[in-house]
Amino acid sequence: MGFDQTERLGAHEVAAWLRRHPAFLQQFPDLALTLVVPRENGPASSLAGYQLEVLRDKNRELSRRLQELFGNAQENERLAVRTHQLTLALMKQDSAAATLRAMAAALAEDFHGDLVRIVSFHPVAGIDDAEWLQVIAEGDRRLDGFRDLLGSGEPVCGRLHPDKNALLYGLRAEDVQSSALLVLPGIGLVAVGSRDPNRFFPGMGTLFLRMMGEALVAGLQRFAA
């Protein structure tokens, strides 16, 4: 049976009054127990049962969020420790070549990069033939696709254009589905490639990437002519 206009207005007024007096049902516990609340799925339930289930749903959601936050905190702690260890390792090197080798090794081993590539704007004494290093002058036209990145100086994560992949990874370009790029102002680029298309994605945090890039720049500047 439907309500007429008067009954609907009365129901709305009752609901509004109850919202202003949420403790009303404490004075009439028998009324609270007899109220029936319709469910979207399944049979109707009492108000007390409905409230209990709502609280359980909220608790489950809060537990899920806490577990997610805890997992993120643990991962951030691990990254912070690895970044600190990398910084110390870079500062212990005795040449630019050794510094770049330490960086490439750490990204591959400690940070689990499937492919690590470094582009240097200048020749590096002591490294003549390394798969992970190529020397390309900063003004070279081959770097035109990276101009915006070089201008911003900010790390970038995600899937790269095939032309960029080809320049960075050469014959292994098709193996790389996502990348993290670090800009080394006046020095070059560092690329970390992954076979997982979701490993690096736009919008992910880049704080630790930025810190690693800054540590490498500081390590290399010690040997600048």
Tell me about this structure.
- The chain is α+β, with helices and mostly antiparallel strands and 225 residues long.
- The chain has two domains: 27-92; 96-221, 2-Layer Sandwich (Beta-Lactamase), CATH 3.30.450.40.
- It is built from eight helices and seven strands.
- The protein has helices at residues 5-20, 24-27, 29-34, 47-91, 96-109, 147-152, 162-169, 207-221; strands at residues 36-37, 45-46, 115-120, 133-135, 156-158, 178-184, 188-194.
- Strand 1 and strand 2 (45-46) form a beta hairpin.
- It is elongated and about 85 Å long.
Number of domains: 2
CATH fold name of the largest domain: Beta-Lactamase
- Average pLDDT, rounded to a whole number, is 86
Helix % is 40-55%
List the strand order in the largest sheet. Answer: 4-3-7-6-5
Secondary-structure class: alpha+beta
| Known CATH architecture of the largest domain | 2-Layer Sandwich
Q: What would you call the quaternary organization?
A: single chain
Alpha carbon gyration radius: 30 Å
Let me know the CATH homologous superfamily of the largest domain.
Answer: GAF domain
In whole angstroms, how far apart are the ends? 90 Å
Total count of strands:
7
